[in-house]
Backbone:
């Protein structure tokens, strides 16, 4: 059921939620978290759909904060809050409130969101686009345990990675990082099959796709060997080639779904590496809400060490201090 | 510096996104044309692959009498997966999986077939990189176990080379009494070392069963009252609404107690009653489970505290059902129990004097499995009798299936001007708080076999202890009387109700 409220307040929205729940006959709720989606009108529909799909795995209260641009000084002075409350059938599993903010209240979105958070349950904020420069310091971001941004949806993804590294706070995460979990998992599985040492790596993928950089940084950080970033037409990541002491090990994915795993001395094998949709990524993000130390270590490895590399840079620095592998994560935690 | 040998540098315990993925390996299924294999095992393998939990090159080998080629086998798996898998069918996952599918045709006494199996496995090691790691799933009637394991031994299929493993997976029944269970264990252990034998009790793969441990040992709320000072008694029920279906050959002579109480219900009892394990590894768990199973005592008067029954004709959920003795393939004079209830006591400090009532049956009211911990009444009530007339005993109910969850029943004031206290329940439902579709038990168990994680598999000692508990009951039943008849679609024979009434208690209606 849907309840539309215009020029409303958080307390009226709370009343509407209770009313909606009573109307559909299920006053008890088992929601496990509050997911706040901060977006503009243009991206609201897709984001809401992805988040509702993800709510099938993680029943949640979904708060979609839509900031409406003001077109005149009078608009800007006029604060207004409209809300659309959805429960039952219309809200996936859980409850959804779409909040539309006009005028001055845009700068005080946290005052609208705070009363609507579920008691005692974790809060996740997701910015599908236009993430703040420092998510942890953002008024909405500071309410959350987990702050999800997407460096893929920015003008300069590589620059974005630099910025994220500079302001990283435990709890930050990036959908560009979630996108490569299947790749990372498959690469780890590939190395399970050989007992050789990796000597160098090449990560190939489309330009301006931060997932490629993140994967390369992760490999460089974990393996401590030179990692080269090569450019292809895509889609997304297309190949990872590792040179090892017993020959090449590579995963090639030309079409975005079925990849080929080649290991020297073994026949080629097909492995499923489908590109996943946003709902699956969000569901993965919501699975664990503790800080992702591996992401932190990867991000802190530094995108610049990757590009300067072409060989020695990354490998040399890494080789000199193998014991310092955990250091970046610790530094981050101390901040 | 480059990566070390042995430890995979891309693996890190702190990296929680990477799933627990099985190492290079393959699964050989004997009796691959059976129901279990098509409805549970094949879909589970696909679902694991779809969730990215199987290694690249994972191989599935079917062994059966049918005259099939690899392609025919792949087609059968394909159909089984499409019909029964939990997750969506994806072509690229199927392609990955189908590359490693092989079929070996033969009977269990056919030496040539086992030679073919051996060369198939060697070939897969080369072509799919399975690394010599194979699990043999014996989805065959237990009378074939000795033959199959002997053949595996004879053809060197059970020999583990350095750095690789060979495992045996067997399904219940693990014997039909202590003696046969010991014989079976001897046969299997002669070929496979005990820690490489995985006994499937699919109940232990269920999320709700694993949650018993989380509920008890991760919370502070329940443990202080989880003892004889607060608990009045415990009821463990596993009810089925179906009859024996086409399983007459298997079921007759076995009966409900051997089929269900010996394994599922005693495992549930062990998890409910055991002390906190020192850690969550297989050895620590088995230590606590065997301790508590070893402390289980049967009542002295088995006539008064055990009941067996047979379903008679009746109506079950709007459908007419025939009685057990009228089922196809059942001897009309059969004394096999389709309902069994026993009272057990646990002789330790925590549970002395707290009865555990176990019951199971076919053609009962509805399909349900639950553990109900029923608490004592409040020692004193400031409310007068009329106020608490409708108040029952507090209870914590773990619903294992269906509608998985936990219910806490307690008294609450009825709104109004007079003081009246009535039972209400606080309900936690899995479907509400967690993923809509939790993995099937078989997914979890197959993955655990491939990972070599024995947490969720009953060990030899547990199986033998369970038979020690049940054997005297079966012996008594053999010598005394015959099963009580109960109408299909009810909650069992009146004798079962009388059994609890003698103790001043009654069964919950689940």
Residues:
């Amino acid at each position: 059921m849907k309840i539309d409220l215009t020029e409303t307040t958080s307390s009226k929205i709370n009343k509407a939620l209770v009313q909606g729940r009573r109307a559909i006959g299920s006053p008890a709720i088992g929601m496990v978290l509050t997911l706040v989606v901060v977006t503009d009108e243009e991206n609201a529909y897709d984001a809401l759909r992805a988040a509702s799909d993800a709510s099938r795995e993680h029943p949640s209260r979904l708060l979609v904060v839509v900031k409406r641009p003001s077109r005149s000084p009078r608009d800007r002075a006029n604060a207004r809050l409209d809300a659309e409350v959805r429960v039952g059938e219309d809200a996936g599993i859980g409850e959804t409130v779409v909040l539309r903010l006009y005028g001055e209240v845009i700068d005080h979105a946290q005052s609208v969101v705070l009363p609507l958070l579920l008691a005692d349950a974790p809060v996740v904020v997701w910015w599908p686009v236009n993430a703040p420069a420092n998510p942890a310091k953002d008024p909405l971001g500071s309410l959350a345990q987990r702050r999800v941004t997407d460096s893929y949806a920015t003008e300069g993804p590589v620059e974005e990675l630099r910025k994220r590294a500079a302001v990283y706070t435990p709890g930050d995460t990036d959908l560009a990082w979630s996108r490569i979990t299947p790749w990372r998992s498959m690469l780890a599985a590939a190395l399970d099959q050989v007992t050789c040492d990796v000597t160098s790596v090449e990560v190939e993928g489309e330009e301006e796709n931060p997932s490629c950089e993140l994967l390369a940084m992760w490999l460089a950080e974990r393996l401590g060997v030179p990692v080269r970033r090569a450019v292809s037409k895509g889609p997304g990541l297309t190949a990872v080639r590792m040179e090892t002491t017993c020959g090449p090990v590579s995963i090639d994915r030309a079409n975005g779904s079925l990849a080929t795993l080649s290991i020297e001395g073994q026949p080629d094998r097909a492995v499923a590496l489908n590109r996943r949709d946003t709902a699956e990524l969000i569901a993965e993000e919501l699975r664990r809400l503790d800080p992702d130390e591996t992401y932190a270590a990867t991000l802190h490895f530094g995108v610049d060490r990757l590009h300067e590399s072409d060989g020695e840079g990354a490998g040399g620095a890494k080789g000199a201090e193998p014991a310092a592998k955990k250091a970046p994560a610790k530094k981050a935690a101390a901040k | 510096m480059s990566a070390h040998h042995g430890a995979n540098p891309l693996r890190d315990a702190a990296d929680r996104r990477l799933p627990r993925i099985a190492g290079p390996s393959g699964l050989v299924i004997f009796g691959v044309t059976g129901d279990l294999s098509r409805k549970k095992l094949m879909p589970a393998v696909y679902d694991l692959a779809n969730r990215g939990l199987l290694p690249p090159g994972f191989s599935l080998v079917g062994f059966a009498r049918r005259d099939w080629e690899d392609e025919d086998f792949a087609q059968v798996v394909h159909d089984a997966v499409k019909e029964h898998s939990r997750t969506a069918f994806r072509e690229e996952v199927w392609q990955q999986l189908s590359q490693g599918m092989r079929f070996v045709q033969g009977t269990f006494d056919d030496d040539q077939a086992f030679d073919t199996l051996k060369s198939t496995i060697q070939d897969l090691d080369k072509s799919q990189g399975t690394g010599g790691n194979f699990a043999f799933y014996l989805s065959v009637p237990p009378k074939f176990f000795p033959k199959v394991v002997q053949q595996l031994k004879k053809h060197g299929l059970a020999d583990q080379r350095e750095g690789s493993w060979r495992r045996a997976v067997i399904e219940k029944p693990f014997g039909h009494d202590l003696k046969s269970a010991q014989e079976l264990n001897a046969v299997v252990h002669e070929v496979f070392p005990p820690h490489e034998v995985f006994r499937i009790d699919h109940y232990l793969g269920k999320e709700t069963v694993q949650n018993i441990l989380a509920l008890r040992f991760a919370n502070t709320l329940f443990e202080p009252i989880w003892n004889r000072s607060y608990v009045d008694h415990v009821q463990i029920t596993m009810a089925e609404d179906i009859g024996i279906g086409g399983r007459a050959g298997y079921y007759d002579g076995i009966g409900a107690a051997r089929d269900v109480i010996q394994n599922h219900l005693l495992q549930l009892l062990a998890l409910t009653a055991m002390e906190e394990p020192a850690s969550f590894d297989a050895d620590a768990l088995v230590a606590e489970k065997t301790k508590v199973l070893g402390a289980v005592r049967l009542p002295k008067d088995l006539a008064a505290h055990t009941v067996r029954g047979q379903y008679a004709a009746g109506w079950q959920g709007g459908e007419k059902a025939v009685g057990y003795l009228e089922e196809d393939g059942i001897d009309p004079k059969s004394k096999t129990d389709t309902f069994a209830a026993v009272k057990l006591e646990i002789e330790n400090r925590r549970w002395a004097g707290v009865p555990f009532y176990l019951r199971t049956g076919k053609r009962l009211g509805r399909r349900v499995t639950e553990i109900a911990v029923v608490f004592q009444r409040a020692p004193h009530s400031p409310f007068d009798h009329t106020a608490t007339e409708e108040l029952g005993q507090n209870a914590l109910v773990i619903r294992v299936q269906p509608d998985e969850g936990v219910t806490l029943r307690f008294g609450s004031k009825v709104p109004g001007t007079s003081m009246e206290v009535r039972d209400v329940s606080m309900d936690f439902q899995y479907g509400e708080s967690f993923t809509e579709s939790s993995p099937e038990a078989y997914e979890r168990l197959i993955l655990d076999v491939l990972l070599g994680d024995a947490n969720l598999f009953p060990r030899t000692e547990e199986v033998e202890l369970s038979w020690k508990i049940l054997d005297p009951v079966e012996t008594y039943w053999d010598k005394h009387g015959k099963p009580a008849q109960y109408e299909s679609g009810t909650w069992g024979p009146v004798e079962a109700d009388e059994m609890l009434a003698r103790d001043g208690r009654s069964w919950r209606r689940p």
DSSP finds 13 helices and 14 strands in chain A. Residues 30 and 133 of chain A are 34 Å apart (CA to CA). The two ends of chain A are 45 Å apart (CA to CA). Residues 2-149 of chain A form one domain.
